[in-house]
Amino acid sequence: MSAELLELTAAQAAERVRSGEVSAAELFDAWRARAGEDELNAYLWLADEPDCDGEGPLGGVPVAVKDLFCTEGVPSAAGSRILEGYRPPYTATVVKRLNGAGAPMLGKTNMDEFAMGSSNENSGFGPVENPWDRSRVPGGSSGGSAAAVAAGLAPWAIGTDTGGSIRQPAALCGIVGLKPTYGACSRYGMIAFASSLDQAGPLTRDVTDAALLFRHMAGRDACDSTSLGLPEEVALPSAERLDGVRFGVPPELSGEGIEPGVRAVFDDTLARIEELGGQVSEVALPHSNEAISAYYLIAPAEASANLARFDGVRYGARAHNGDLLSLYERTREQGFGAEVKRRILIGTYALSSGYYDAYYGRALKVRTKIADDFRAAFERVDLLVTPTSPTVAFGLGEKSGDPLAMYLSDFCTVPMPLAGIPAISIPGGLSEGLPVGVQLAGPAFSENRILDAAHALEHAIGFDGRPAHV
Amino acid sequence: MIDREQVLHVARLARLRLSDEEVERMTGELSSILDHIERISALDLDDVRPTSHVVELENVLRADEPRPSLPRDVALAEAPDSDGRGFRVPSPGA
Description:
- The complex is a heterodimer.
- By secondary structure, chain A is an alpha/beta fold.
- Chain A contains 15 helices and eleven strands.
- Among the domains of chain A are: about 1-240, Amidase signature (AS) domain (Amidase signature (AS) enzymes); about 290-365, no CATH class.
- Chain B has helices at about 5-15, 20-35, 70-75.
């Protein structure tokens, strides 16, 4: 029975528990046994027991949690050696909410250190392998969460997205990933990377599961003054048609730089949208070419401030050579990996005296232009549609020697968080036997619209979400 | 462009010790990243207001009422070194 249970979507499994066909404890045990077979390095820690009784709308379906979320008494290192073994004294609001809705934590998933990366190769605890081809990356930074769901090692997972860290690994692993509107979910207990961009969201097998999980993550939280809650409840999507829905294709995010196999799947998707009654037209986002520049100034600038707290005094690792200054410097030298150091240096430089106006100040103005572009676009169309990633999953080690090339590969996903708007990635098909993601973005708080359109498209595409050899 | 001295200066500001090899590598990598980023200097942004935050928020206030905080022993539990009352560090002047 347990093998069949693991084939169900999370929403179906929750239904079985509610109807009494299976108990929450049996479901947890089945998933725990399966998660224990992880050979992809997707998990950094696994729960031995469920931490809630499974009473509630999530029916005891366990959830894999990105290591970025603080979980009381459970190792929470954000993929960094500087926090190795750290057990926080409190739990992130999002995890607590899911728990209260009946989803116990299955384990903590691997990630790029402090969520900085697009390949998961920046983890302090080794890279994650892509279940579609183990010589390739799963994407990042929520690579462990994406790989676990794609490989059937977790029914669903949560991650965080700052410049694409939910959507890009979801695309590269052939699953669904939703980055909500900034402020929809509380950031309390998320180890901060770039506070004006970070947002938690679901990584799931299908769109219905994404809606269900998101419904129980979102909400205003007194512990995060930037959290807003949602103006309407998250609805479970039901649309099968796209009649009258206007889709805009920004040429800046779908033309140059997109590899031919990805473009072919994207073109098929546009044809599918029209078959379902949707209208497709071109709509420009003129400043999106500058989004990478703005993002790689703003995010490192915020990170350089946020990561100042890791100094070997209050928690985590410590190294020193006598005095207090050497304690700070050596702890950070030994505890941080190369990408984190790189971003701290860029961010500190961009904020430093003499460079602030030219770099950080200008980046904030570009951010305004990008948000204005989106506002103008959404006066003409309901949703934007783009590829999620310009390529399919690349080889482990293929790009890790060229940080700029790695940054540039994020160009489809960074504009949305700069504007705070929601976007989803769903699998559009395969290229060279590897998944290709299609991204739908909408105005702030249009999650229900996005989920409905994604649901209709998902059914028309009929993607077979299981890697051949799993 | 960023040179070796600037990298060392920024690393000191960030309390980050770098090995000679790291200084070498970071100087090259940061230069190529900043060269790309400098594309934004070509844009006309004079009349554009900056966006530091996407959500237009008023101050979020709450009543100033005392409530329990993290107990001291819990707050100190993860410290690399503690005397039971506070965090212990070497002298700044040692």
